Records
---
Amino acid sequence: MTIKEQQDAIIEDFSFFTDWTEKYEYIIQLGKDLPLIEEQYKRDENLIKGCQSRVWLHAEYKDGKIYFTADSDAVITKGLVSMVVRVLSGQSPKDIAEADLYFVDAIGLKSHLSPTRSNGLLAMLKQMKMYGMALKSREL
């Protein structure tokens, strides 16, 4: 699936919930369903700067695509990183670097997160896009 298709699928998933309690429960479930990151990648250089919670993000470049794995020590944050991994993992560096990530606003997430969680989410997105920009040169 493309980045746009992944985002549209998340927006559709969230459309089934009527209130934010249900949406938060869904985000927590997404975090529980996130495949575990290998322990060897839970090191300081893989921590996202700017997150109140501890969030580890590992990127692997393989066959022209970037694959992300992640984990967090906070359940909501783990669900947030799960959505971002779902959208961007398995995409080309160019597509990641140039992605218009609209799903966060479309599901109303930004207005329902605390400022620290919102900043953390932006830091995750920024780090993933930076991986895309750094590896984009390999495609040229």
Note: The chain has a mean pLDDT of 90.
---
Amino acid sequence: MPHPAGQEDDLLAAIETHDVEALERAVAGRDAGLAVRGKTPVHWLLEMYLRSDRFAPCLRVLLAHGGRLDDPWLRAVLLDDAAAVRAQVAADAGVLERRLDLTCAFTPLLGSTALHVAAEFGHVDVVRELVAAGADVDARARAEADGDGHTPLFHTVASILDHAAPVLHLLLAAGARTDVTVRQMTWGRGFDWETTLFDVTPLSYCQAGLLPQMHRREADVWRNVRALLAAGGRPVPPLPNVPNRYLQPRPR
């Protein structure tokens, strides 16, 4: 039996805002494995645009109520479960190089490694575990055009609410390259904010966060630009016009 529209609205609103308590109420007594408006709740959660520390608890709620995520490797990574990741790597170190395909509202996760996925969702504990296990911090995802794809660092330079900033610094400390160039990348493919960029580096991708459709905070963007410059051994110039005076409200 389909759920009433109001109940579906409550479920999707809880998923959209990562409201763990509201999600518990919305799925109580229901099968979270059933589709809601064409997608299962787990798929809605994975494809939604918010990034927060409440993502993994929301995923646990859905899995506890019948949601499905059959790949144990992907499950461990998405739950930010460092112990499960460690056990999977101990059983088969090849999982570090396994390729995963997920729909992503922002930076592509097609032909990605677990490190790309963990970086996108800002999962610090799993990123730390993956790096310690020997994951390639400069692994390339599937390319959109001739040449190599992007590295995990790209997922961290302009994340929503700067949620992946701790992962950015972890990757830089682990030696992630800041001079990678990708010939073509499409941010938000399939969504209204889809934007294709060319000859992209971590620096230029970070600065793309200033585009209005990306809704990134200016101060976060420039703070991450400074971190990338410093990690690349480049001078970090003063930036006196942040926040940009032209964009600030003017007194009437």
Note: Residues 1-70 form a domain with the Serine Threonine Protein Phosphatase 5, Tetratricopeptide repeat fold (CATH 1.25.40).
